[in-house]
Design a protein that fits this description.
single chain; Glutaredoxin; two-stranded parallel sheet
Length: 186
């Protein structure tokens, strides 16, 4: 049987542990990886249709800049991904192929949500043969915050006027016939 003194010590200890678990991090939260184990599983969200493309600027590992506002004039597919996200990595080759095959009709931009070293993301892409998409970085998770992204990968499709048409949440085979229909690329 616990004495009153022992019981107070246990309660105090539990209070400290529970209070410690509620600590707020100063680091911005990164979105979670999609639970989908393969590409092709995801959700279409058109609830933000008509929203303007945000005017953010991103850099790659070498310091080259990309202003999202400069992408207007042709439809654009913006993919938020991370090196630690399995479904993100699985869909990168299909995004690269889509961007290559449809370069006259569509811009494909992948923006890493990794908070690590920029050169590591560039090397990660190079090691996987992803050489045509650019290693754009968003280490402060500006886009994830702007879009209120909770799951990676998340891909946002804008029309040529820079207006959002839909978001795809989760992995996808971007080379599929269904994708061509979704993007109106028949």
């Amino acid at each position: 049987m616990l004495s009153s003194r022992s019981l107070k010590a246990v309660i105090l200890g539990l209070t400290v542990i529970i209070a410690g678990c509620d600590r707020q991090s100063s680091e911005p939260a990164q979105p979670q990886a999609s639970p989908a184990g393969k590409t092709g599983e995801g959700t279409l969200d058109a609830s933000h249709k008509g929203s303007e493309m945000p005017d953010f600027t991103f850099k790659d590992g070498s310091g080259k800049e990309l202003k999202l506002a400069s992408l207007e004039g042709k439809p654009v597919l913006i993919n938020l991904w991370a090196t630690w996200c399995g479904p993100c990595v699985a869909e990168l080759p299909t995004l690269q192929q889509l961007g290559t095959d449809r370069r006259d009709q569509l811009q494909v931009v992948v923006i890493s949500q990794d908070m690590g070293k920029p050169e590591a993301v560039a090397q990660f892409l190079k090691d996987r043969g992803i050489t045509r998409l650019g290693g754009w970085l968003d280490p402060d998770n500006q886009l994830a915050s702007h879009y209120k992204v909770e799951t990676l990968p998340t891909t946002i499709y804008y029309d040529a006027q820079g207006r959002e048409q839909w978001r795809w949440i989760g992995g996808r085979d971007w080379g599929s016939v269904d994708t061509a229909k979704l993007l109106n690329l028949n």
